[in-house]
Amino acid sequence: MTINYIGSISANDLPATFTKFFVEPVSVGFPSPANDYLESPIDLNQYLIKNGAATFLVRVSGDSMLNANIADQAILIVDRSLKPKHGSIVVASLDGDFVCKRLQLKPRLCLLPENPKYEPIYIQHGQNLDIMGTVTAAINKFE
């Protein structure tokens, strides 16, 4: 999976874009009657970006994170201010190559793909691993 840097983003610098937001969730099983009322509008910038000064966007290519719902060409919202922990999905630089993987801290440091077609990347002594940030959301486009 390769990563292309899109740029820094701040919810405060973006124009507010409000979208209608239904109170009831949409069923993914059997349909349920729709409600005629809406919750207050939602600003996707404020919903997706918690710390604008530390947030950036990247576009991914590849399918190694499919089981984490990160598809080819998805846009990731990455927050540098969040401390990565065991199990976090991170954007990292490994020996200068950017990757998006799930971080495993124990029992052995490694970057895990979310697709069984790919092998874990075990960090070897002498390799340079730099965690760029923690992925907080992925935007997948269907059409």
TrEMBL record:
<keyword id="KW-0234">DNA repair</keyword>
<keyword id="KW-0378">Hydrolase</keyword>
<dbReference type="GO" id="GO:0009432">
    <property type="term" value="P:SOS response"/>
</dbReference>
<dbReference type="GO" id="GO:0006281">
    <property type="term" value="P:DNA repair"/>
</dbReference>
<protein>
    <recommendedName>
        <fullName>Peptidase S24/S26A/S26B/S26C domain-containing protein</fullName>
    </recommendedName>
</protein>
<dbReference type="InterPro" id="IPR036286">
    <property type="entry name" value="LexA/Signal_pep-like_sf"/>
</dbReference>
<keyword id="KW-0068">Autocatalytic cleavage</keyword>
<dbReference type="InterPro" id="IPR039418">
    <property type="entry name" value="LexA-like"/>
</dbReference>
<dbReference type="InterPro" id="IPR050077">
    <property type="entry name" value="LexA_repressor"/>
</dbReference>
<dbReference type="Pfam" id="PF00717">
    <property type="entry name" value="Peptidase_S24"/>
</dbReference>
<dbReference type="GO" id="GO:0016787">
    <property type="term" value="F:hydrolase activity"/>
</dbReference>
<dbReference type="InterPro" id="IPR015927">
    <property type="entry name" value="Peptidase_S24_S26A/B/C"/>
</dbReference>
<dbReference type="GO" id="GO:0003677">
    <property type="term" value="F:DNA binding"/>
</dbReference>
<keyword id="KW-0742">SOS response</keyword>
<dbReference type="InterPro" id="IPR006197">
    <property type="entry name" value="Peptidase_S24_LexA"/>
</dbReference>
<feature type="domain" description="Peptidase S24/S26A/S26B/S26C">
    <location>
        <begin position="24"/>
        <end position="135"/>
    </location>
</feature>
<comment type="similarity">
    <text>Belongs to the peptidase S24 family.</text>
</comment>
<dbReference type="GO" id="GO:0006355">
    <property type="term" value="P:regulation of DNA-templated transcription"/>
</dbReference>
<keyword id="KW-0227">DNA damage</keyword>
